[in-house]
Amino acid sequence: MAETRKASRYVVPFAVAGVAAATIGLVPALAASGDPDLPEITAQQLIEKIAASDTQTLSGTFKVTTDLGLPSVAGLADSFAGGSSSGGSSSVDPQERLTQLVSGSHTLRVAADGPEKQKLTIVDGSDEYSLIHNGDDVWAYDSKSNEVFHEKGDASDRPAGEKEEVPGTPKELADEVLKAAGDTTSVTVGGTAKVAGRDAYQLVIKPKQSGSTVESIKIAVDAKTGTPLKFTLASVEGGKPVLDAGFTKVDFAKPAASTFDFEAPKGAKVTEGSEGLDGPTHGKSPEDLEKELEKEFGGLDGLFGGMAPGAGAEGMNVIGEGWTSIAKIDTGAPAPKTGEAPKEVQGFLDALGDKVSGKFGSGTVFKTKLVNALMTDDGKVYVGAVTKQALVDAANAGQ
Questions:
Q1: Residues 267 and 201 in one domain
Q2: How far apart are CA 18 and CA 265, in angstroms?
Q3: Among the four residues 213, 274, 288, 356, which has the most C-beta atoms within 10 Å?
Q4: Within 10 Å of residue 105's Cβ, how many Cβ atoms?
């Protein structure tokens, strides 16, 4: 148990990367050129155009490029697994494969025909990974390992939070961003663009507050259909965007029905339901997860070193509002000391973190281009899409 609690103190820095990945999602979009001459439109009218968009059918190719400013994580998995790969996730596990999109550049193909038929394929050279939803069937196929995952059942009958879905579309992401627009946000129309050969308006969203890591969010909106075609998230650090993703080709015609057909290739390993997928939560009920946590880590308290509310922690408080909101968590566990972590882990932490001090004492800021976290030496954590100075100021204020 002592070793488990020691290891749990490394969870927070790695959670920073996870939070950053969660804010990105899976978004199609692309590189564009040219400025088409379109009728003038206000930001409100463009938002309404997006909201009124009801694109049910499309197919296309898009490129997703993400740059969180993270150091290499090579070797970390073996460090946590004690050098063994036996506990790794299945190569066909959607959760594992889709999280790989949070770094580097990836080419994807997408097709949709209403809410019951969607297909997404990640192309990696001659290898492909596909997620297919066709009525009651959900398939995942990895051509490299020749593995197949299949789940059958009416998605509408599943409890909320357990539905298998192809990852979010640009429209869904745009909707979420626009919901958050308020007094702390500037929303304007930033001219026009050409995306995948289509005329588009540029919706520009910026924080009014200082201290946010977000410089701007730009959404290219198809002038005819109102469908978001491109999504770019820029950091105040400059350089490459945190996310630059967009269609290189798009067609709003109905895809052929055969696009969504799937039959397991000869000799493929087929996993039905949640069997064989080693992801930590896939197919497990809350009761099952609680039992596993109790067995492996002594419950949530053991896993997170007292971070979880109701498990000996003070819980989480939110400081500020809008783009500069900061979550404060009292873990109740001192930060790991130099030399306690495995060599590969310590190297990653050193590359990810900056030592800081102030009225609060001392600690380390674990940074990405989007989400930063300050972990004080006495176990308090301040995390948000804010600058390093904003975290230090919050800690100094003792809020």
A1: yes
A2: 34
A3: 213
A4: 12
